[in-house]
Amino acid sequence: MVQTCFRMSIQKRLSELLRKRAERTLAAMVDTIFLTVAAYCKQGGANTGSTAAASSVSPHVSAPSSPMSLSPSPSLTSLPSAVSGDGEGVIDVSLYTSTAEPLLDTKDTGSSETEANANIAPEAIVEAAKAILEDEKGPHINSRGIRFQNQDTAAPATKPYGVGSLSKLFGFLVGLAQPMRANPESVRFLALSLINSALETLPPPGDAHLSLFSALLPTIQNELCRNLLMNLTTDDLGLFTLVLRVFQNVFYVFKESLKAQVEAFFQCLLSTVMDSKYVAYEKQEMALECIVEFCSSPTFMVDLYVNYDCDIHGSDFFENMCKFLYKNAFPVSGSLYTVHTLSLDGLLAVVHSIAFRCSQPPDLRLKTPISAAELSQRKRMKQALALAAEHWNQGFKQGLRFLQEMHLVPVPLEARSIAQFLRNTPGLDRTIIGEYIGLVDPFPQEVLKEYCDTFDFKTMPFITALRSFLEVFRLPKEAQQISRVLEAFAARFHSCNQDSLHGPDACFVLAFASVLLNVDLHNPQIPERMRIDQFMSNLRGLNGDKDFDENMLSHIYRSIEENEIKLQEDYVSGKMTPLKWRSVLHKAAMRGPFLTTHTNAYDKDIFSIILGCPIIAAISVVFDTASDDHVLLKALQGFNLCASISAHYNLSDVFDNLVISLCNKSTLLSPPGEDPIIVFGRNRKAQLATREVFLLTKDYANHFREAWKYILDCVLSLYMLDLVPGLRDMHMHVVGASTGEPVSPASAKRRRNLPQSHSFFDVFWTFADPSEPEPSQEELAAAQQTQETIDNADIRRIFMNSTNLAADSLLYLLKALILADRSVRPKTISGSGNQEEESSLLCLDLITAVTVLNRDRVILVWVLVYEHLTSILAQATRPSRIVERAVANLLLLAQYLLSSDISDQILRSLSVLLNLPATLATPLSDLIVNGIVKIVLAHPTLAVTGSGLTTVVGVFAMGAAQPATSVTGLKGLLTLVQMQDVVCAENFFALYNAVKIYATSKKCSSKLAIEAMEVMYILFSRLPAVIPQNHTTSSAVTLDAILDDGEFTFTLIPSGHPPPSALDPQAEWENWWQGALSGFALLCHDARLDVRRHAMTYLQRAFLSPPLQRLPPSIWLHCFNDVLFPLLTALLEPRGRNGVEAAGLEETRLRASALLSKIFLHSLPIIVPSDAFEDLWLRILRFIELYMKAEDSELLAEAVPESLKNILLVMSASELLVDPPGQEGRMARLWELSWQRIASFCPDLRDEFRSVLAKTGGVPVEQQTGSGVGEQQGGGGVTTGGNIWTEDAAANMSSSSSSSS
To answer: For residue 1111, what pLDDT is reported?
Structure first.
C-alpha cells in the first residue's frame, strides 16, 4: 500500500488531484503506523507487533500534521497491504498480498473518471474496514459496487506490522530523501514531509518506547542526518524549510545521541547558507529564523556551551554562534533589514534565558551534570591544548617543549603521555604526526608503540582496522618510515586478533600490500590498475607458509577499489560530502552523549562570552539604525537584560559600557549648539536613551564604577540648561537648612545680581532674544516633552539614594564628582564664562550633600573629600565663589559630621583655615568665624577637645581682622571661656592669646578691646586652678598672632619649656604668670587712651590679686624686672614712637608711676628678705628719676616726688629706711645708697624727710595712725593723720593714688 500510494504520488501522468490525494493517503498511513506501533510498544507488545486501539495512545501525542488524517482503530489492523484494481470500477482488497503494479490504468479516461477514482481511495479503506467487521466470511459489495473478498477466512489473525516494519518504512523514507538523480526535489520533499509527520507523531522518549527509539536511532544518526545536511544546499525554499523543520524534530527527540551530528548541521548551515554570497536572501532569512527558534529554547545555548565549548574534541560552538548573531545584527549598509532584527532576537533570546535563570532559586545549581569548577577546568584544558597544537604544527620539537612548559606532560617525557596527546588533541598537523612517529630514534619508537595501543582492533576486519589507523595521520614519505609505522600497526592488530592471521609478519605484509594497492588503484599517473588476481598472486604463501584467505583478500580489494584509503578530513564547514560525513561519524564514535542541562551554574561564563562578542555594541548599533519604536524598545529591553545579569554577577565593567553607550545616544554629553532643548524634545531616541540611563542608575547604581563620570556629565549638561533646578543648593536641603548659600554678604550681593529663574519656561523665555519670533506650538510641545522626560528621571533622587550604595560605588561617585569639578575649574580660574563656574559650584554642593547623607560611614570618604576641598584652597590666589563655597562646605561638613567616629580628624582638618594666606583669610573671615560659631554651638563638648580647640581658637582669633566679625569672634571666645572644663592647662594660653588679639587689634573698637580685657582678666582669675600641681608646661602648643595693617597672620608655636620634675616656682612664673601679666602690660601702652586706662586698672588688679601673694620673693622680683620695668621703659619712649597718642601720654605715665609705687609698697613685706632688694630699690629710684624728668612734664614733676615721699615714709615706718646712728649693717647700707641716689635728682628731699621724722619724734606715720604696711593693699596712698607734707603735695599724692586704684 505504501509503495502503491508513493508511486501514484510521483507519477506525473496522473492528474494533480489524484497525486495530492495519494500523498494525503500515504501521510495518513504513515501516521497510523507510527501512532499504532508507539501505542503498542507502550503496552509492552513484541517487536513483531500488533495494533492497539486509538484510545490507548497517550493523550500527549500530537495529531498528524497532514490535512487528512485517519484515527487509528482496531479495524485498521486488518486492512490489506496492497490494493489491486481490474479497471472496471471494482477494487479487490487482498489481505497479506503485496504488489508493485500500478494502481490504475495508464490510459487517460477523462477527468470525471480520474476524479472518481481519486475520491475512492481514502473512503475505500474505511469501507473495507467496516466490511471486515460486519462479515468476515465471504465477499462484501458496498453501495458503490466495490467488492471486498476474504481470500482465506480460515487463516488465523496475524500482526501485519510492528517495530520491524516501522523501521523498514522509516528507512525507505529516509532513502528517498537522499540528494541524488533518482530522487528529484519533489520526491525528497514528499519523503521529508512524511518523515516530519512521523517524527511529530512519536511520543516523548522514555523506557516505555525504548524498543521503538532503538530501532529508529541508527537510521537517524547516519542516513537521515547525512541527507538533511546534503539537502541544505537546495535552492527550493519549501524543501529547505522542511529540512530545517525535520532537523528540529530530530533534535528535540534524539539530541542525546546526536552530539556530533548537531554540531555538523549547524556548521554546515552557517557556512553554506549564512556565509555565502550566492544564497538567496529569503533562504538566509529562513535559516536565521530556525537558529533564533533554537536560541529561544531556554537551555539550548547552555547545552551548546557544555557539550562543545567545554569539550576538548568539540569546536567553540556557542562562542561561534554568538559571534555569528553579533555579526549579522550589524547593519553594514546603514539600513536595518529582517536579518539584523532576527539576529538581535537570537542574542536577546540567549540573554533572556540567562536572566530568567538568574531569577531562579539557588538550588537550581544542584541540577548540574558537571560541576562548574570541573567545566571551567575543561575549558582551560581545551584552550591550553589549542595553544599546544599551534606550537606542535610549527614543529614537533617546539611543540614538545611547550607541552613541558605548560605542564601538560611530565618531565622527563613519557611515551604514553605523548601518544595520548597525538591521539586525542584536535587541530594537530597530521603530516607532522606521521613524521614524528616514523623517526628511528628510540623515544619516538616508544611513542609509536603507545600510539598504536590507543586503537582497539578487536573483532574488526583487517581492512577496517587499517583504514581507521591510516585515516588519523598521514604516512611519512620515506619507505623505511612507512615500514616502521606499519610494523607497529601489525603488532597491535595481531595482539588484538591473534587467530585471524599467522603472526605479526603476515599482518605487516598484508598491510604493506594494501597500502600499495591503494596507491595503484587511485593514482591517476598509473595507467594500468592492478587486478584482483594479481593482488592475490602477489600474496601467495606469505601468511606464514600458507595463503591468505581469498574471501578476505577479495574483500580488501573491493573495499579499497570502491573507497580509497584517505586521510580523514575533519569537517569544519562547507558542503557535506560522503568523506566529510565519515569524519562526522568517526567523531560521533569518540564523543559522549549530548548532555541536557537545566542550571544557572554556568551562566556567568556564558554571559562573559556573550559580552565578548560584544552584544552591547550590537544592540547599540541596532538602536542607532532603527526607526521603528518596536525595534527601539526591543533594544532597550536588551540593555535591561544585560544590566540585570550584570547586577546578579556584579559585573561593574558591563555597567560602565552600558552607561557610556546610552549616554552617547542621549546627546547629553555633547548637546547641540542651537536650541538644545527643542532638539532634544524632537529626538525620540535621545529621550528613550535618557530615560533608560537614569532608570539603570536608580536600579543598579550600586554596581556603577566608571559609569558615574558619564552620568554626572549628563547631569551637568541638564543643570546648565536649568532642567534640574532641584539640584540647586541640594546640600543645604540635605542638612535641613534654609535654601541659599552660606556665603558672606559680598557673595550674596553678587548672587543677587544673577538672573533668578524658577522653572524651565522662565529660562526659556528669559534668555530668548526679543528680536526672534515667538516659539511655535511644535517647539513648545518639544520643550514640554523635554521637561517631562527629565522630570520623570527624578535625578535628585539619585543622589538622595546614595546612602544605599556599596562602598566602592560611593567612592567612585565622589571621585567622579571631584573629577567633574576639576575638569571645569581651570576654565573658571581663567575667567572663561559663568557656566563652568556654576558647574563647579554644583559639584561642590553635591559632594557635600553625598558626604552628609553618608555620615554613618564618613570614614570611607572623608579623606577624599577633604583633600579635594583643601586642594581648591591651596590653588586659590584670590577670592572667588568657588573658594567661598569650598570653605563654606568644609565648615558645613564639620558641623554635621562631628558626631561621627572621626571627630578628631575632622577638627584637625579645620586647621587648613588657619593657614590661608592673608589675601584669602581677610575677606573670608566673616564666613569662617560664623561657621566655627555654629560648630561650637552644635557640638560644645566635641569642638573644644583635643587638637580641635586650637583650631577653633585660632579661627576665632581671625575674627579680629574684620570689624564685622570681631564681635562674633569675641563672643565665641567668651562662650569657650564660660564653658565648663574648657579652660585648662593645655589650652589656657591659646584662649588667652586669642582674646588678647581682639584687645590689641586696630580693627576692633575701643569698647570691644575693653571687653576683651575683661575676658582676659576672667582667664587670669582662673589661672590658679589651671596651673597643674606638678607645674608642667602650660601647653604643647600656643598661639602667636599678629595683626598688621588689618591683615591677620598667626602661627602655632610649640612651648620651649620642658616640664620640671618637681615644684619649681621659676617654671611657674615663666610658664604661667609672666605670660598672663605681660598681656595686660602690653595693653598699657596701646595707642588708644581709654584702652590704656583700663589696662592699667586690670594690671593693678592682677598684681594685687591674692594668688600672687603666695609667690616667693624671687618671683616678685621677676614681676618688676619682666613686667613693670619693661612697661615703664616703653612709656618713656618719645611721644608717638610706640604708637601711643601724644595727648594722653602724660596721664598714662602718671598712672604708670603710681602703679609702680602701689605695687612696690604692696610687695614690700615679701621682697625685703631678698638679697636683690637693694638692686630692685635702686632701679625703682632710677625710674622715679626718669619719670620726674620726662619731657618737662609739670604734672609728673609734682606727683612723682610725692609718691617717692610716701614710699620713704612707709619704708621708714617699717624700719627699712632709718638714720644710720641707730642702724648698722644692711640697714645702714640701704640708707646711704638710697640717699645717694635720691640726692642726684632730688637733693632737698633728705632734709625734708629728717624734719618730718623730727616732728613725729621718730615715730612712723603708720604707727601714729594705727595702720601699718599691710593695710596699704587696698588704699590709694599713705594716711598720715596730719599734714606733714605741704597741702599741695598731699593733694597731688591723693589724686595719684586714687587714680591708680
So the answer is: 84
State the cell numbers at 888: 563654606
Whole-number Cα distances in Å, 569 to 270, 315, 346, 436: 19, 15, 31, 20
* Helix (H) or strand (E) segment spanning residue 354: helix 338-358
Pairing state between β 1037-1044 and 1047-1054: antiparallel
| Cβ within 8 Å of residue 929, ≥6 positions away | 955, 956, 958, 959, 965, 968, 969, 972
916-927 mean pLDDT:
85
pLDDT band at 378 (very low <50, low <70, confident <90, very high): confident
- What would the grid cell of residue 785 be? 516633552
The single-letter code of the amino acid at 1040 is: D
| Bridge partner list, 1047 | 1044
**What pLDDT sits at residue 154?**
44
Give the mean pLDDT of the chain. Answer: 78
Q: 1284 or 1090, which is more confident?
A: 1090
Q: CA 1268, 1273, 1278: angle at the middle one, nearest 5?
A: 55
Q: Above 90 in pLDDT, residue 700?
A: yes
3-state secondary structure of 306: helix
Cβ contacts of 908 within 8 Å, gap of 6 or more: 947, 948, 951
d(CA 1005, CA 964): 11
Q: Say what the pLDDT of residue 1202 is.
A: 87
Task: Give the mean model confidence (pLDDT) for residues 856-863.
Answer: 92
Report yes or no: 703 and 655 within 8 Å, Cβ to Cβ: yes
Q: Among the residues of 705-770, which ranges form H helices?
A: 707-720, 730-734, 745-752, 760-766
- φ/ψ (deg, to 5) at 546: -120, 175
Locate 447 and state its grid cell: 611513542
Q: With beta carbons less than 8 A apart as the criterion, state whether 717 and 823 touch.
A: no
**Secondary structure of 1169-1189 in HEC code, one letter for each residue:** CCCCHHHHHHHHHHHHHHHHC
pLDDT at 66: 33
Query: How far is the first Cα of the chain from the last one, in angstroms, to the nearest whole number?
Result: 144
Q: Which three cell numbers stand for residue 1022?
A: 582662673
Q: Is the peptide bond before 412 cis (omega within 30 degrees of 0)?
A: yes
A 10 A CB-CB count for 804 gives 11
- The per-residue pLDDT for 42 is 59
Q: Cell triple for residue 755?
A: 538672573
Average pLDDT over residues 17-38: 82
- Rounded (to 5) percent helix, strand, coil in the chain: 65, 0, 30
Q: Are 729 and 736 in contact (CB under 8 A)?
A: no
Backbone angles phi, psi at 690, to 5 degrees: -65, -45
- Higher local confidence (pLDDT), 528 or 116: 528
Eight-class DSSP state of 725: G
Distance, CA of 62 to CA of 35 (rounded, Å): 10
pTM (global) more than 0.90: no
Query: Which spans in 407-478 are helix H?
Result: 415-424, 430-437, 442-453, 462-470
Q: Is 486's pLDDT higher than 90?
A: yes
* Band of pLDDT at residue 112, cut at 50, 70 and 90: very low
Q: Is 745 helix (H, G, I), strand (E, B) or coil?
A: helix
Sign of CA dihedral 732, 737, 739, 740: negative
Chain-centre distance of CA 590, in angstroms?
44
CA distance 247 to 241: 10
Mean pLDDT of 396-425: 90
Q: What angle do CA 72, 77, 80 make, to 5 degrees?
A: 120
Q: Any idea what DSSP says for residue 198?
A: H
Residue position matching grid coordinates 517487536 = 47
Q: Residues 1165-1191: what's their mean pLDDT? A: 88
CA 873/CA 891 separation, integer angstroms? 13
Q: How confident is the model at residue 1221 (pLDDT cuts 50, 70, 90)?
A: low
The neighbour count for residue 204, using CB atoms within 10 Å, is 11
- The CA distances from residue 1138 to 87, 960, 1088, 1142, in Å, are 150, 21, 11, 10
- For 867, the grid coordinates are 583633600
Phi/psi at 838 (nearest 5 deg)?
A: -65, -40
